[in-house]
Design a protein that fits this description.
12 strands, disordered N terminus, twelve-stranded mixed β-sheet, alpha+beta, 272 residues, outer membrane lipoprotein receptor (LolB), chain A
Length: 272
């Protein structure tokens, strides 16, 4: 029996129609993906220009860091803190968690790291900008939550190594409507939620370490970003607490978000 139907007509060639539809839709899908990537880049640049254009900034945050134990169990540790920034060369940041209470003070000449829970502090000469300070601290494995967002070169820092970007859509963070962006690099995936409207500040930042078993994440939730705040004259002057010990930076222990001996593998608090 040939392919002629009982109505005397040849049945439609479904395979050809599917190919035609696929060929028709493919350029549309590629165009949409390209548009989403462009949207992500534009929103990120808008956010970057806005935050770096502020001379003074204050924010409060909550942070979560996940670790993978030797038994491959994922454990999360949580902390909160505040950041006060005066560009280009002054910074005060605090982080309080269940196992540490830390403060960093930088006046453009020296950086002081205070472990309040151990009543000890370390001080190092660090003349220069906040950007230079963050680079030095990273070299010493001292992380500042969301430090990428404090840099004057924030857009260049965030987009370095990016191989894919997407504008996922919109989400709501603490009742605030945000644009949801997602980016990929060879080693990490990261997401950013940017407030919609005339105040495009970052509201949530998530970093996923793909190269680590279990893909642990670092999450920063920014609760209150205030631009162009008034800052007291002595806001960046360090005043040691009573009976606080001055020690070398290498001797300042028990200031990590993670208690010693509790976990073996963790992601970085910065994108790279």
């Amino acid at each position: 029996m040939n392919r002629t139907s009982i109505l005397g007509r040849k049945p439609p060639d479904i395979g050809k129609r599917v190919i035609i539809v696929v060929l028709t839709l493919t350029p549309m899908l590629l165009t949409t993906q390209h548009a989403h990537a462009q949207d992500a880049g534009k929103i990120l640049k808008l956010m970057s220009d806005y935050v770096t254009g502020q001379k003074t900034t204050s924010m409060t945050f909550d942070s979560d860091i996940e670790v993978i134990t030797a038994e491959l169990q994922k454990i999360q540790f949580t902390g909160s803190g505040q950041v006060l920034l005066n560009r280009p060369d002054k910074l005060r940041a605090t982080r309080t968690g269940g196992y540490s209470d830390v403060e960093l003070v930088f006046d453009g000449k020296a950086a002081t790291l205070l472990g309040k829970n151990v009543n000890a502090f370390a001080q190092v000469d660090a003349p220069g900008s906040v950007d230079q300070l963050i680079d030095r601290l990273r070299e010493r494995k001292v992380a500042i939550p969301g430090s990428d967002l404090l840099l004057s070169r924030v857009y260049e820092e965030l987009t370095a190594g990016v191989i894919d970007s997407k504008h996922i859509g919109q989400g709501v963070i603490d009742g605030v409507e945000c644009e949801h962006l997602a980016f990929r690099t060879p080693d990490v995936d990261w997401q950013l939620w940017v407030e919609v409207g005339g105040r495009p500040v970052p509201r949530k930042y998530v970093i996923t370490s793909k190269a680590v078993t279990g893909a642990p994440q670092y999450t920063l939730r920014i609760k209150d970003w205030k631009p162009d705040v008034q800052i007291a004259a002595d806001a960046f002057a360090f005043k040691p607490p009573p009976a606080a010990r001055k020690v070398d930076l290498t001797a300042l222990r028990e200031i990590d978000e993670i208690p010693p001996g509790r976990a073996s593998v963790q992601p970085s608090g910065a994108k790279r």
